[in-house]
Amino acid sequence: MQAKTKGRVILIAIVLFFALPALVAKAVLSNHWYQSGITNKGTLIEPRVTLSQLGIDNPLQHSRWQMAYLVPDQCDDACRQQLHLLTQSHTALGKEQGRVSPVLLLSAGSDLNAIRDLTLPRITVNQRFIQTVGAVQLVIIDPLGQLVMGYTASAEQQVALSRSVLADMRKLLKLSRVG
Known about the structure:
By secondary structure, this protein is of the alpha/beta class. It has four helices and six strands. It has helices at about 1-30, 75-90, 125-135, 160-175, and strands spanning about 45, 65-70, 100-105, 120-125, 140, 145-150. The longest helix is centred in the first third of the chain and has 29 residues, at about 1-30. The chain starts with a helix and ends with a helix.
């Protein structure tokens, strides 16, 4: 009788040993206790749209990735700081710097006085672009002209925003086969 009970205990232990992890995993997933890992810091721009679909001519298309800053109507100190951080982020890319170009996006009301001394490439955007990206300040554009990610931050969060753009840009460049 003792051997029979011992055999049953071993059988139950073996079944639990293999079944318990599956049951725990099922409970965790069905109760949404697990948050999947998201590594990008920006917001993916969906649905997929390109500058050419929006009717915008992109002189850098088919050549480089672009970190593009939408120049606001009034370029205050926060705007000037973001322009500085854009050029610094480009420099921080190091050896990948040649694959990326910092770009200024200009709308009809953009403050041109604030950027007159900058020699960065400029792309004029239309109202369809502004409606597509919403309140986004910075946009990553791939070499094919597709809007990939957008970033928005308050004046106090600009350094963190630049770090986020830089981190995402490095990942994109590492995984990209274009540009």
